[in-house]
Amino acid sequence: MAVRSHRFAGPADLHLHSNHSDGTEAPGEVVRQAHAHGIRTLALTDHDRTTGWDEAGAAATALGMTFLPGMELSAKHEWRSVHVLGYLFDPAHAGLAAETERIRGDRIGRAERIVRSIGRDYDLHWEDVVAQTTPDATVGRPHIADALVARGIVRDRTEAFDGILHPREGYYEPHYAPDPLTAVRLITDAGGVAIIAHPVTAGRDRMMPVPFIERLIDAGLGGFEIDHRENTEAGKQTLRRIAADHDLIVTGSSDYHGSGKPNVPGENTTSDEMVARLIERATGSSPRYP
Ligand code: AMP
Ligand code: FE
Ligand code: FE
Ligand code: ZN
Q1: Ligand 1 in contact with 146 (CB < 6 A)?
Q2: Cα of 74 to ligand 1 centre, how many Å?
Q3: Amino acid 82: pLDDT
């Protein structure tokens, strides 16, 4: 453990997005931005997508950084959108790969329905959204936001999410996502470590009930992303207590999306001890070292 810990020099940022989902930069550029902000260990965690790993891993090791393969798997508990970070899993695991393909496929039809609905009131077309995505991207509301910006309807993603894309405006549509129990089991079964992303945000996605979180722990949950700008202070305290009681991993990350969000690489970091525990626990794939 001590020897392996030497191989990654912190600081570690374990939650960043590229244009393979809803970040605005290619994986290699995400890595360069993280490096410029002092990060030396990083995980690429695109939504429901692993295609950025090779480019990010090569860029990271070329810069002397450690790369951990990751993904942010979409899940849903009752009405809540729940994001489950998976690290160091086997991307060829049939069950997990099938689930991510199902989510990604459904997200496209859902985005088309949202755009059709917005298009009844605004000059917005599906082609506008396609123009904002790369062929690899997991399509989401951020791409619709970018299309609204390109059309001059809103100024930026924030304005789009606060307005037209907010469920209260009536254009919102859900997409298929598995139950969090299924998400945790799939990541764990694929040899990965499952960490609930930003588990205690304010508003409609607020925290899952503690008894349900305990079921996730029984199903193999590895821990919680606690240091994240959207977690509430009260929620962080609750989660730290649960994590200590169950000897779970706790992480801190930026959730960088390029220019798509104000989040900056390294604004939150994960301790060397917790990175070491993640690596020790995983069996599905290996970190990439320089
Ligand atoms: P979707 O999964 O398609 O419903 O879109 C949710 C995604 O939008 C999340 O992954 C966030 O990264 C992004 N998002 C949510 N709120 C905002 C916001 N205010 N500004 C920019 N991106 C946002
Ligand atoms: Fe996102
Ligand atoms: Fe998320
Ligand atoms: Zn994220």
Answers
A1: no
A2: 12
A3: 96
Residue 259, ligand 1, Cβ within 6 A: no
Number of domains into which the chain is organized:
2
pLDDT digits 0-9 by tens, 129-183: 999 999 889 999 999 999 999 999 999 999 999 999 999 999 999 999 999 999 9
User: How does pLDDT run across 59-117, given as a tens digit for each residue?
Assistant: 999 999 999 999 999 999 998 999 999 999 999 999 999 999 999 999 999 999 999 99
Do residues 24 and 142 share a domain? no
Task: Choose the residue to mutate in 18, 22, 80 for probing ligand 1, maximizing ligand atoms within 8 Å of C-beta.
Answer: 22
State in Å: Cα 208 to ligand 4 middle.
Answer: 18
91 and 201 part of one domain = yes
Considering the domain boundaries, does residue 227 fall inside one? yes
Last residue of a domain, one of 138, 169, 200: 169
Whether 1 is covered by a domain: the verdict is no
**Number of helical H runs and strand E runs in the chain:** 11, 7
The pLDDT value given to residue 72: 98
> What pLDDT, on a 0 to 100 scale, did the predictor assign at position 1?
41
Pocket flag, ligand 1, residue 22 (CB < 6 Å): yes
- pLDDT tens column, 184-194: 999 999 999 99
